[in-house]
Each structure stands twice: as C-alpha cells, then as structure tokens.
Structure to design on (382 residues):
C-alpha cells in the first residue's frame, strides 16, 4: 500500500521544504494518469493540501480538484474528489495517509471513477444487483464488480445476489472468477451468490423439494378415472394409474390436482380433500419429493386423452383397479387405495384448505387441516 507522509510545514526545515517541493512533480501516482501538486500557505496554522486530478481519457483535459483542510486538532480529513457523483456509486481503493504521525484511511483519492453496480439492499443486510442495468462490456463488469465487492464489504453487507439473464451469460465466468458461486438456474437466468462475512454462508439454499399431485377421481358407478402413460419403465407396461403431475409455481395443491386431471384426461373435476401425502428423498436431481393424493369429484365423464403424455385413459371399476398386481404388490399404493376407500365409506377425514394470513409476512396462504364435529365421528364432510 502506497503511503504519503504529511508533516507540519511550519516546523519543517528549509531543506525539507525544498526537497518536498522538488518532488511534487514526480508523484508516485503519475502512472495512474494523475499529476499531483502541493500548495502550502504559511498563514495557516497547518498546511492546506490540494490534489489536482488530470483526466487523460478526455481529449479536452478535465481538471477536478479536491481540497483537504485541517480540523481543529490538526488532523486532515478527506473529502470526495468528485462531489457531483453519488457517494454510493463512486469508489476506489483505500489509501492510508500518515498525517502528523497518525494513520488515516481515505477512500477514492486516486480512482479512475469506477462506479458500483446498480443494486438495492434486501431486508437481511444483503444486496440484490439489478439484472437490467448491468454493464455491456465484460471488462467493465469485472472492474465494477470488484469495486462493488470492496464497497459492500466496507458497508458491512452480507449476502450478494447476482442474477444474470440468459442473454448476459458471458458474464458468468467473470463473476465466478471473483468468487461468486452457483445458487440455481432457470430457463431464462442463472443466480449466483457471494457471502462476505467470515464463517459459514447463511444464505438460503436452492429449493430442495419438488411437489407432485395425484387425482383420485371416482364416479357414482364406483369407477376410477385411470391412465396409462406414454413413457414408462418396462415393469409398468400394464399399469393403470391415477392421473399425476407436478404443480406449477404459485399454484395451490388443490388447483394443481384439478388441472392435471383436466390436462391428461379432459375430465372436469371438483376438489374434495387431500387424502394423504408421501415424502421421499434422493429422487430427480437428488431432490426430495412431496406427493399429495387428492380426492376429486367428477363434473364430466367424457374423456379426451392428452396425446403428448398419455397413451390411454378410461373409467375402470374400483374392484378391478385395486386387483392390479402392481397395486397389490406395492405397499404405498395399496395403502393409498385403502385410505381412499375408507374416505368413500366416511370412515376417514382428509385435509381441507383454509385461507389464512400470517402476521410474519402478511400474505394469504392455505393451511390444510380437517374439522370434525364432536357428534360426527364418521366425518360426513363433503
């Protein structure tokens, strides 16, 4: 780290003054394109130092001046060299000055006017970079990113969230080189993070679960709506199963089950209850899986098969459906069928969604639970 030593000009000897004035034109920062002039006033109790910045990037030659007067105790205080730029956007390396024997930290004296990335603070002491205002040039992005990290460290920030759109994928290796790590990726972007404080990273991890739904639809004839999928493992070639699928982002479990049945079979249904759910681990991409079995009431009967996913669909008698070898041999599916049959006989109560609002986030959400009248032991429900 380069140091400039300042001293009380009045107490300096003539030889020291002459030596200092002679060295003024050969500043150690001349390689940065700045010339430094030092002007002293003997009328002041302490010296007044003026730094003159000469910008060589402009053909017209722009001079920006910053003065550093002393305060009452003789210690020189730093000011911004370029006052017209928001202090949140301008930054530079830290230089340490020894003034009257004390080390003082000053920022941005000899910067090249590097700006911080456009960003906003999150509610957890972190920073979210604006993905729509990233610099076009990767080299400019690298400089701004390095500067921004130093700036955020000085401000005591914690986690940095950097979302890079697909069309700016050339910036990914630049960010990784600066220490950012992959968090997650979607079709249109990749999210990277940087944890500033020492110790373990406290940022939340990527989503750990996928959520699936299955629709158990049974009509007044005691027939179950079943499908055979186009793509399956050889061992499942003869299996007729209930319609299943994954719920979408911001979709409720009950509406996801109704949608999946409609998409695969063309049958309209009404949600009744969540009968049961399964929690499994280390499935697709080593993620965990939540699978909710929902009982649905059919509102139509005509079947229209989805040609993309489904090979065939039909209404199958419940007894025939249960008798399938793969159902009988699979403990989980057999138990699900037992629960559904118990629900049909009103000997079991499932879970209904209830809209609630939490004070923690102020957002409405669904809480699934059942309400049993003390006099209604058979759960007559819907």
């Amino acid at each position: 780290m380069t140091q400039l030593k300042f001293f009380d000009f009045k107490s300096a000897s003539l030889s020291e003054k002459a030596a200092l004035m002679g060295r003024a034109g050969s500043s150690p920062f001349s390689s940065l394109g700045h010339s430094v002039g030092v002007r002293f006033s003997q009328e002041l109790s302490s010296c007044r130092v003026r730094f003159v910045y000469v910008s060589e990037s402009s053909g017209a030659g722009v001079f920006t001046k910053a003065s550093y007067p002393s305060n009452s105790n003789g210690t020189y205080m730093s000011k911004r060299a370029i006052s017209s730029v928001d202090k949140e956007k301008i930054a530079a390396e830290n230089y340490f000055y020894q003034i009257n024997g004390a080390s003082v930290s000053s920022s941005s004296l000899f910067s090249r006017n590097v700006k911080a990335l456009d960003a906003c603070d999150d509610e957890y002491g972190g920073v979210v970079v604006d993905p729509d205002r990233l610099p076009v040039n990767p080299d400019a992005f690298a400089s701004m990113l390095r500067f921004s990290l130093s700036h955020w460290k000085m401000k005591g920030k914690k986690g940095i969230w950097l979302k890079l759109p697909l069309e700016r994928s050339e910036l990914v290796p630049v960010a990784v080189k600066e220490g950012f790590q992959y968090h997650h990726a979607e079709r249109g972007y990749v999210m990277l993070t940087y944890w500033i404080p020492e110790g373990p990273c406290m940022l939340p991890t990527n989503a750990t679960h996928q959520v699936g739904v299955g629709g158990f639809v049974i009509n007044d004839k005691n027939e179950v709506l079943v499908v055979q999928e186009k793509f399956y493992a050889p061992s499942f070639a003869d299996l007729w199963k209930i319609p299943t699928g994954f719920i979408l982002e911001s979709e409720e479990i009950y509406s996801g089950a109704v949608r999946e049945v409609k998409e695969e079979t063309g049958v309209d249904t009404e949600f009744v209850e969540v009968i049961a759910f399964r929690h499994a681990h280390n499935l697709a991409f080593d993620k965990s899986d939540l699978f909710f079995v929902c009982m649905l009431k059919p509102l139509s009967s005509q079947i229209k098969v989805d040609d993309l996913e489904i090979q065939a669909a039909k209404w199958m008698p419940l007894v025939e459906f249960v008798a399938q070898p793969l159902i009988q041999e699979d403990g989980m599916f057999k138990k699900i069928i037992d629960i559904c049959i118990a629900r049909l006989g009103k000997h079991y109560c499932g879970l209904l969604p209830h809209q609630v609002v939490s004070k923690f986030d102020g957002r409405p959400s669904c809480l699934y639970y059942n309400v049993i009248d003390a006099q209604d032991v058979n759960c007559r429900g819907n």
